[in-house]
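Sat 14:20. Reprocessing the chain from the morning session after the first attempt stalled halfway. Input below, unchanged.
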Amino acid sequence: MTDHQGTMRSIRLEQQGSVENLKMVTEDIPSVQRGEVLVKVKASSLNYRDLAMLKDQYPGVVHDNLVPLSDGAGEIVAVGEGVRRFQVGDRVAGNFTREWFGGKRPSYTEPYGSHSDGWLTEYKVLNPELLVSIPSHLSFEQAAALPCAAVTAWSSLHGPSPLSAGDTVLTLGSGGVSVFTLQLAKWMGINVISTTSSDEKAEKLKQLGADEVINYNKTPNWGEVAKELTGGRGVNRVVEVVGPATIHQSLKAIAPGNEISLIGVLSQTGDKIDYFDLFGTASTRTIGVGSRDDFEAMNALIEDKGLTPVIDSVFPFEQAAEAYEYLESQKFFGKIVITHE
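Finished this time. Tokens:
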């Protein structure tokens, strides 16, 4: 075991409200105890969840003065006594939740950045069971994009009723989950219909392999159009990342008896759903990211196919606040990453 002494930088969200409440602090590098590893964090990434917590719009519990961000990747620089899962020099990323290793989702899970310190720090001590190895061809910045958005996309395509080659999935927009869903689906032989807000983003989605792209600003009835693109059968899955503002069109797109995967709440407003809107149409499944087993299964595909996450922008550690502001702008395509180097 190598002992790391000295100080490190962390960014803490003192309280919810605005980017002004993100404060950089200097702290002691934590020491590893038996059964722990010390990770030198090389990169972290942002999800909409992080912005919601910053702006006091997150529906769950958020404790004050925590290090934010659920997603990070780095290198193990010290191991405690009794650790066998990893060794010094291994490249790792953290699973989104602390308790979900496999099987059904536990009744209680603890995501990073809301209940306990997240990844916006230079060093982090963890139980090695909470980490996964990252694909060898990925940079730390690319690997930091995986824990939430990519695993969520993987879970959306799989689950109790996994999609098969030849099925069709509908993705909404060009954020992290939607772009990862597109990439993973194409490697699995699944057809993809995507929606987006601009012709420029539509071209990028096509370059990634989208079979059809609908500009929802020009085509407000995009759900009906998506159904028409399947010969009137409807899509086999909708990865619903928006919420009330889009759910009615998602219901129009889905084939009877198929699934709408409920991911997030990018919108708080929209028409309410009536009981009979759901009756006889589709099933819904709430996606809580995924387990460590899901993460490792996804990484095996990423490694085998050489898949590369789409990174829109990389911000330096000192400009974390600017990264949050860029996330709020909704101008990005793919993932927003913070480098800690």
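Residues 262 and 286 are 5 Å apart (CA to CA).
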